């Protein structure tokens, strides 16, 4: 038994009827195999200049360049070589006139490696 009454499904408020979905919204074309074979879009060139791609320096007095505004609040990954055991992810935020970059290093599991 329905505790809210038998005609709960038909209950409407005048002026607030839910419109019926158009039939055309249910006949979308499924993506074909040609969509899966296309390469992903290229990354805009300005997003390739992140702090993770800046060459490392052994001199601690050398400061990093100021990040471009377009990389702020974006998650980025280092350009990594296949032989490295870790991957670095980074994100840069601005707080007033300062920039804060958080870097996360994560081990990479190799395919076909029995120890992982």
Give the topology.
Blueprint: H1 33-37, E1 75-77, E2 86-95, E3 98-107
Antiparallel strand pairs: 1-2, 2-3
Concise overview:
The protein is mainly β.
Structural commentary:
- The protein is mainly beta and 116 residues long.
- The chain is built from one helix and three strands, in the order H-E-E-E.
- A hairpin with an 8-residue loop joins strand 1 (75-77) and strand 2.
- The longest helix has 5 residues, at 33-37.
- The protein is elongated.
- It starts with 32 loop residues before the first helix and ends in a 9-residue tail after the last strand.
- The model has no long low-confidence stretch (mean pLDDT 76).
Q: Based on helices, strands and strand pairing, what is the structural class?
A: mainly beta
Strand order of the largest sheet: 1-2-3
Helix content: under 10%
**Cα distance, first to last residue?**
55 Å
Quaternary state of the chains: single chain
Q: What would you report as the Rg, rounded to the nearest angstrom?
A: 26 Å
Proportion of beta-strand residues: 15-25%
Helix segment count? 1
* Low-confidence parts: none
Q: Averaging pLDDT over every residue, what do you get?
A: 76
Largest sheet, in brief, is: 3 strands, antiparallel
What best-fitting shape do the alpha-carbon axes yield?
elongated
Taken in chain order, the helices and strands follow as: HEEE
Report the count of strand segments.
3
Any key phrases for this structure?
mainly beta, 3-stranded antiparallel β-sheet, 116 residues
């Amino acid at each position: 038994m329905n505790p809210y009454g038998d005609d709960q499904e038909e209950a409407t408020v005048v002026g607030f009827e839910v419109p019926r979905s158009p039939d055309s919204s249910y006949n979308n074309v499924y993506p074909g195999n040609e969509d899966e074979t296309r390469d992903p879009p290229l990354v805009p060139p300005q997003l390739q200049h992140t702090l993770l791609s800046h060459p490392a320096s052994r001199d601690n007095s050398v400061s990093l360049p100021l990040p471009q505004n377009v990389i702020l609040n974006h998650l980025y990954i280092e350009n990594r070589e296949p032989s490295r055991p870790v991957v670095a992810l980074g994100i840069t935020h601005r707080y007033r006139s300062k920039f804060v970059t958080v870097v996360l290093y994560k081990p990479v599991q190799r395919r076909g490696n029995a120890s992982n």
